[in-house]
Design goal:
This is Bifunctional ligase/repressor BirA. The chain is built from nine helices and 14 strands. By secondary structure, the protein is α+β, with helices and mostly antiparallel strands. The protein has a seven-stranded mixed sheet with strand order 3-4-5-9-8-7-6, sandwiched between helices. It has a five-stranded antiparallel sheet with strand order 13-12-11-10-14, with no helix packed on it. The protein starts with a helix and ends in a 5-residue tail after the last strand. The structure holds ligand BTX.
Length: 329
């Protein structure tokens, strides 16, 4: 309900909307409208006015509240339940905990800060407070486990398109799942799955975007390799609007995937890729494996990279880290 109130106030930016109008539009009593407005003020929204004179939303602050994310959210399933925390160890862990207790598909967990944000293979993901979008989405796809990798590609497409929609940053996708700008990492995606032989119980797609992170907030060891929307375009971007755009794009790509139209998602992935067509080195994920060099020719339906080796053979790479040569772009 608070999300709807915000939506109406936002549509009427600058024009007061009376308590009565809101009450009528939402089928509430004026007292409960007033209670919701009071709660929104407490959450940090600068809402001026009174029930009689009308309420005005003075400005839209960059708050990452459930109301803010849900208000104007153009999805049916993703985000129908949104849980926002100030600080968690990892939004993926919280989403998995909720999933094991039966949380519905579409649950979104967001935190202002992660104290133990995770990347792939046990790597750490720096998640400083107040400046990023650290978000996990719970899905229960009726897909065989090997096809779940497709959802990571779908998420990368959703993030890259959303970043382009809410900012001026021309980002691209670096195989397998990084969204990069100017050769630096803007976003990482960690997809985790719980399944048995018969079926997938759930999938948690964890998305970390450096939105308004100043360079100094990155740990020194990644300052050269990481970037944020704010660093790239020289001004901040609205985090909740980015979250909404990602959720809408992901829901669309998810539906396409389930409906057997993953080809369309893959085509968009290819169009956004900064890896394909370039000479690359694949750094192994496990010790003892050799690094591979070749030309990144394509990705297949499982998200594997098809690498053309110098001897002409086509090699399928399922996991690894890409280094683009000669200079990382
Ligand atoms: P990854 O393994 O591809 O990338 C991790 C590597 O990226 C680190 O080893 C480090 O070099 C670099 N790195 C760490 N933090 C950042 C950062 N903030 N920006 C750019 N580079 C960084 C990528 O794994 C997957 C990341 C998923 C993060 C989301 S946030 C919400 C959810 N919760 C959670 O714990 N993880 C996911």
């Amino acid at each position: 309900m608070r999300a709807r109130i915000l939506e109406i106030l936002r549509e009427n930016r600058g024009r007061p909307v009376s308590g009565e109008e809101l009450a009528r539009a939402l089928g509430l009593s004026r007292t409960s409208v007033w209670k919701h407005v009071t709660a929104l003020r407490r959450a940090g929204y600068p809402i001026e006015g009174s029930p009689r004179r009308g309420y005005v939303l003075e400005s839209v602050p960059d708050l990452l509240t459930a109301e803010e994310i849900r208000s104007g959210l153009a999805t049916e399933v993703l985000g129908r339940q949104v849980e926002v925390r100030q600080s968690v160890s990892s939004t993926n862990d919280l989403a998995k905990e909720r999933a094991r207790r039966g949380a519905p598909e579409g649950l979104v967990v967001v935190a202002e800060e992660q104290t133990a944000g995770r990347g792939r293979l046990g790597r750490a993901w720096a998640s400083p407070p107040g400046v990023g979008l650290w978000m996990s989405v719970l899905l229960r796809p009726p897909l065989p486990a090997p096809e779940v990798a497709r959802l990571t590609l779908a998420a990368a497409v959703a993030v890259a398109e959303a970043v382009r929609a809410v900012s001026d940053v021309p980002c691209g996708i670096k195989w397998p799942n990084d969204v990069v700008a100017g050769g630096r990492k803007l976003c990482g995606i960690l997809t985790e799955i719980e399944a048995d032989w018969e079926r997938v119980h759930f999938v948690v797609v964890g998305i970390g975007v450096n939105v308004n992170t100043p360079a100094a907030a990155f740990p020194p060891e990644i300052r050269e390799s990481a970037t944020s929307i704010r660093i790239e375009q020289g001004r901040p971007a609205p985090r909740a609007a980015l979250a909404r755009a990602i959720l809408a794009g992901l829901e669309h790509a998810y539906r396409e995937t389930l409906a057997g139209r993953f080809d369309g998602v893959l085509a968009r992935w290819r169009a956004l890729s900064v890896t394909l067509g370039r000479p690359v080195r694949i750094l192994p994920v496990a010790e003892g494996q050799p690094a591979l060099a070749g030309v990144a020719e394509d990705v297949d339906g499982d998200g594997a990279l098809l690498l053309r080796l110098p001897d002409g053979r086509l090699h399928r790479v399922l996991a690894g880290e890409v280094s683009l040569r000669p200079a990382d772009t």
